[in-house]
Description:
Number of strands of chain A: 5
Number of helices of chain A: 5
Oligomer: homodimer
Shape of chain A: globular
Helix content of chain A: 25-40%
Strand order of the largest sheet of chain A: 2-1-3-4-5
Order of helices and strands of chain A: HEEHHEHEEH
Amino acid sequence: MPVAQLDRVAAYEAEGWRFKSSRARQDGPVIRQRTRPPLRTPQPASSSPLELPLEAGTITHDVFMREALKEALAAYEDNEVPVGAVIVHENRVIARAHNQRELLKDPTAHAEMIAITQAAAALNNWRLIGAAIYVTLEPCAMCAGAMVLARIGRLVYGAADPKAGACGTLYNIVQDARLNHQIDIVQGVLAGDCAQLLREFFAERRESP
Amino acid sequence: MPVAQLDRVAAYEAEGWRFKSSRARQDGPVIRQRTRPPLRTPQPASSSPLELPLEAGTITHDVFMREALKEALAAYEDNEVPVGAVIVHENRVIARAHNQRELLKDPTAHAEMIAITQAAAALNNWRLIGAAIYVTLEPCAMCAGAMVLARIGRLVYGAADPKAGACGTLYNIVQDARLNHQIDIVQGVLAGDCAQLLREFFAERRESP
């Protein structure tokens, strides 16, 4: 299992109250270096991801999705369903989080929710106008609804979720013209890696229940 | 404006991090007495509301909805959109919260979300099986999705929300057979009082922008 051998992302407090982990990291860039690349997809030879413009297309999306994947890996290693998210504003990662449902014993502690709370704190504003959220898995109804409430500008996700996806699969809440905000969607970014991590997690769980 | 003259519900910290207010109050019944009744609906002459069985029907629903209305009033007095929620488990209020979006500058800080986090802490479990949530306004997609994730048993709400309601109006997320949990709905409980509070809030806002 190559995933389990990776360096641990010591990004979160090991315990604590719900969304304690949503404390914004406002003291500079938050992307940490790993000694080994996190997944099979090679790192691009480009300069720092934080310098790339959001409009640069697929390569930029890959870069930020890779950061979301690092968060998903951290969830995996904590025995949480491996979903990760980052929020980007003005080409800077202002929030990063992973699913912490089991740790926090909180059904609302999805990666996206923690990241949204974190990003609002970073901007000191509940409106995340102009922000883009990168998530490894298609958001559920709760998270999709939160993105609309937060006025997020763009949603980029990896794998589709046939069971609960609310951004194109079961619903498309983020593009419902009846609501007071709509969000651009880019889907399928690094979808293979994102889905693979989930498959490995559930396969391992079935083996050792 | 009779609402503004009511006693203040000093239930929440005046400031603090998101969902600081979700700290569960586990030290006994949490319903406090007011010196004056909160709304136009008279208090029932019955014994303590916490003693009434959940199955008793409308009167019980009224009692718990009145507690949710107290929370909505607290939001009103804090200049937040007045929505309140309580969660009941084994005939006991285990969580109570109101909308704190502006105070916490957090788009996810709806009454229901804070109450769900609070209830999960009270039960030390993210599954709120057998719990009922009372909300003054029909939940949005975010909150409806959270209720499904939390496996809440019953949703009782007051006023319908024509703009964003996701429990019968725009969607019915809590009763979608494609999701892995469905929730009983009782709607229209004290709907007049619940809607009136919202109307007064928005009318006042229009007058003094």
